[in-house]
From TrEMBL:
Residues 1-30, 129-150 are annotated as: Disordered. Residues 138-150 have a biased composition (Basic and acidic residues). This is Phage terminase, small subunit. It comes from the Bacteria. It comes from Psychrobacter pasteurii. The lineage of its organism: Bacteria, Pseudomonadati, Pseudomonadota, Gammaproteobacteria, Moraxellales.
Length: 150
């Protein structure tokens, strides 16, 4: 599929359907998540990240049940990245083998984990550019004093 990814219908409705195009009435409506604990199998560093990002995602009301695997994948990639960074810190960017000096395989893990974090983070709106494309629930407007403009 070429071009931009289509914006979900719910987000178009929240924005007031700015394009004035016909909305997809057959789009699935998934259950919004209000609270969820991290899976038991997640490593400790992944649980730390889960506890950091989940309150923000839940407060923005953008997370549904089918999105949980993206949060798990993001947190797992974060854990792998941190573990690999510790390994490089301990053993260096290059390591000596019996035959030669090679790039530490943990450097590849770092690069792959960062790539996964960017990918899953963008799906969840965890970076500035993807956050701009998200539209959360409308905030209540304070009407204030109607004579303020005079």
């Amino acid at each position: 599929m070429r071009g931009r990814k289509p914006k979900p219908t719910a987000l178009k409705k929240l924005a007031g359907n700015p394009g004035k195009r016909k909305l997809n009435d057959a789009e699935p409506d998934f259950t919004e998540i209000t609270d969820v604990e991290p899976p038991e199998w997640l490593p400790d560093l992944a649980v730390e990240m889960w506890q950091t990002v989940m309150p923000e995602l839940l407060a923005a009301k953008v997370l549904t049940v089918p999105d949980l695997h993206n949060v798990e994948a993001f947190c797992t990639a974060y854990s792998m990245w941190r573990d690999a960074e510790d390994h490089v810190k301990q053993f260096g960017v290059v390591i000596e083998t019996e035959r030669s000096t090679i790039k530490n395989p943990a450097v590849t893990v770092i690069n792959e984990a960062k790539k996964q974090m960017r990918e899953f983070g963008a799906l969840l709106g965890l970076d500035p550019s993807s956050r701009q494309r998200l539209v959360g629930p409308k905030k209540s407007e304070d009407k204030g004093n109607p004579f303020d403009d005079f």
